[in-house]
Design goal:
Number of helices: 0
Helix content: under 10%
Number of strands: 5
Largest sheet: 5 strands, antiparallel
Length: 96
């Protein structure tokens, strides 16, 4: 079935203009052994823009080197360039 209504009828911006952050979870996450796990950052997703749209980029570590992914462009980058105000999702792996 094809929708024949004009697309201009639909809003491109979401109605909510603010994010609702749930109350902090008060769980107890003690480990069974006394050693704390160590995690290594291996990826970062970045978002630049607002709730209604924007642009995504990513940083990922491969074979010990960091890379900057931006649409069809991939370039090597230094670890010091990772993160910043656009960091949206961080990816960690547990080191054994």
């Amino acid at each position: 079935m094809i929708n024949s209504e004009p697309m201009s009828k639909y809003e491109s911006e979401p109605k909510a203009k603010e994010c609702i952050i749930p109350p902090k979870y008060q769980g107890n996450f003690k480990l069974s052994n006394s050693d704390e796990p160590i995690y290594e950052l291996y990826g970062v997703t970045n978002h630049y823009g607002g709730l209604g749209g924007g642009h995504y980029t990513a940083y990922a570590k491969n074979n010990g080197k960091w890379y900057d992914y931006n649409d069809s462009s991939v370039r090597a980058c230094s670890e010091s360039s990772i993160g910043g105000s656009g960091a949206y999702i961080l990816f960690y792996k547990r080191k054994d």
